Amino acid sequence: MTTADAAATTVRVAFDVPEGRAALEAARRAADAARDPEGPPIETLAVGSPGTVHLPLVAVTRGDRTVVHRSVDPNEAASLVSLLADGDDDLPVDGASAVVDHEPGPEDFPVGDGALSAGTRRTLHGAGWIDPTAFQSPAILGADALTAISDLGVRGRGWGDARQDEPLAAGWREARDADGDPVVVINGLDADPKADGDGLLLGSLAGRVMAGAVVAASATDAEDIVAVVPQDDPVVADRVRAVADRVGDETDLTVELVSAGADYMTAEHTAVLESLEGNDRIEARRRPPGPETWGLFERPTLVHTPRTLAAVERAVADPDALDADAADPGTRLVTVVGPERRTVELSTDSSLSRALVAGEFGGEATGRTGGTDGSGAFACVGGQFGGLTRDLDTPASAPALRGAGLGTNGSIEPFAAGADGGCPVVVAGRRMRVAREDNCGRCVPCRTGSVRAHELLREVYAGEFAESRLRELARTMEHTSLCGFGTDAARPLATALDEFAADLRAHADGRCPAGVCDP
After folding, report:
1. How distant, in Å, are the alpha carbons of 189, 243, 271 from that of 299?
2. Taking each helix axis from N to C terminus, what angle separates 206-220 and 306-317, rounded to the nearest 10 degrees?
3. Which of 283, 290, 330, 452 lies most in the core, judged by the most C-beta atoms within 10 Å?
């Protein structure tokens, strides 16, 4: 076989921690050793995750077939590439997690019919396939971009976004018209252990996130972008820094990269500004005024998550793909938490159940996840402080999720009846303990309410179920807390009371319907 008639082979190595570079380097050494002028060329590329946590991942593509091996070590990566050296048309399929046939020259990771195939890959298009630092200047900028985002009704995404679940355009206009020089902050600190969307985008599609920030800056006449990344994530920092350098070279913008400690409270959109300003105590700011008029060092500031900015980039790149009449145009990233943890992308008019594999975790892919006696499967939807539900037929749009009492921070954590932790009382109690321990302490409803609510939930096991008092605490936290931490922290408690009150009463009587808690 000669080079002329041989199919080129591309080896993509996906990793998200420094140790993953060893697999890439091993693959490259093997490719160099296998290089033969008369044989098929072998190209190696460093990429981010396509949506799975089983990294490092090696995807070998030749022609119309891709073979995927996940959780590989450097020796395995080298062996896979070495098998390509003989010019054989066969790919290394032994031990592969997936073998996908596709059209030649795909532009996105070939997910086949596996778990990553759920929904649609629009924002995630290219994740795990293209250079994470690839940057393309947006087609629409300035006032035209603001008009486009306004007409399309694009909403903010994620707990750390100043416009979470709200249309972006109003905040952009406020920042543009405020006194002072606007600045755009990319808030990459979302430390919600249940949602991977922001970290996935920064690690796999940093160029797309930065392009969205360029759009926001141009629409508000900002000249500065500050990208905040977790200080314990050097791979993300390297990739964002590379994109920042490109943007600095190709535009008039100044891009600064800042590393900061990532925890749930610090990711709140005003707390991240406190961190950037170097304040000793990180806590939420009182509002109004909001950051759009009084933000970083008193400048008008847009604070957006990577999920929001990637959605902005997609909106201006292909506005015809969005339905401007939809309640929440576009798509939402959803992390399915469990043994096969993954992040998929759903159209906002599609059911949450589409993110699940049929029968997964003891539930159904559509409809209700469990029975009506409190003993069936259920899920926590919306991140660490998501809502508890048996019904996953809710659309993925922000208005629908909030209307159902669920969270919008992009995750589904299913619990099977009888499984470890598969009791709604346990799930609500653990989340209230997080609220008690991790709040910033600035406002009484959150600081004191979370302590008292956690204590009352513990008293259920002692035979005391103060239902009316718990409901009052949930309402108080939701409606009077200073920031979204307290508002969201009330959600697991409120939904447990609404849908699983029978379980709480049963526990007070010394019985766990799920069979999880000790009698």
Report:
1. 21, 24, 15
2. 80
3. 330
Strand 411-415 with 331-336, pairing: parallel
Q: Look-up: residue for tokens 């002028």?
A: 37
For the segment 5-52, what is each residue's pLDDT rounded down to a tens digit? 346 889 999 999 999 999 999 999 988 887 766 666 789 999 999 999
Residue 236, both tokens:
């993300």
Contacts of 279 (CB under 8 A, 6+ apart): none
**Cα(240)–Cα(261) distance, integer angstroms:** 17
Residue 23's contacts (CB-CB under 8 Å, 6 or more residues apart) are 13, 15, 56, 58, 72, 73, 74, 76, 77
258 contact partners, CB below 8 Å, separation of at least 6: 226, 227, 228, 229, 276
pTM (two decimals): 0.93
pLDDT tens across 214-224, in order?
999 999 999 99
From the list 293, 315, 312, the residue with the least C-alpha distance to 304 is 312
CA dist., res. 268 & res. 420, Å (int): 30
**Helical segments of 258-368, H only:** 271-276, 306-317
Peptide bond into 288 cis (omega under 30): yes
* Nearest residue to 413 via CA among 400, 397, 426: 426
What whole-number distance in Å separates Cα of residue 293 and Cα of residue 289?
6
Identify the helix (H) or strand (E) that includes residue 331: strand 331-336
Which two three-digit tokens encode residue 226?
Answer: 């500050």
